[in-house]
Design brief:
alpha+beta; TolA/TonB C-terminal domain; two-stranded parallel sheet; globular
């Protein structure tokens, strides 16, 4: 008798918790990415997100330091679909080591932006990374 009461209390608690989490007004745990279509909006949002990734102490810079990536890299970055980086092209770099340049490009390819673009379009822009 006691165990069935405990089970029903647990069940009620789980149902209430699920309902509370699901229906919290103004909160979405599965936020959809904002669709950007104009080139200028895509580039400005992407550069703003890259600027925040390059702030001291970010996981992105920690990964770069762990891989011993240093120097200045001017890269052409192409974004497509759900904010994924489609391609990275090395425009110029002060790093003579080709392997370091490739590590930098590989790291940038892992970035996923917080916006999406139309499926049939890609957007290319240039960004300068400074790794210290």
């Amino acid at each position: 008798m006691i165990s069935s009461s405990i089970i029903s209390v647990k069940s009620l608690f789980l149902i209430a918790l699920t309902a509370l989490v699901t229906f919290i007004p103004g909160k979405s745990f599965c936020q959809k990415k904002k669709l950007l279509q104009e080139y200028d909006h895509v580039v400005s949002q992407a550069k703003a997100e890259l600027d925040s990734l390059m702030a001291p102490g970010t996981v992105f810079l920690q990964q770069a330091a762990k891989q011993n990536i240093k120097g200045e890299y001017i890269l052409d970055i192409t974004v497509h679909d759900k904010g994924q980086v489609l391609s990275v092209f090395m425009v110029s770099s002060d790093a003579d080591d080709i392997k370091m340049q490739n590590r930098a490009k590989d790291l940038v390819r892992t970035i996923v932006f917080g916006f999406k673009v139309p499926r049939d379009k890609s957007y290319k822009f240039q960004y300068t990374f400074q790794f210290k």
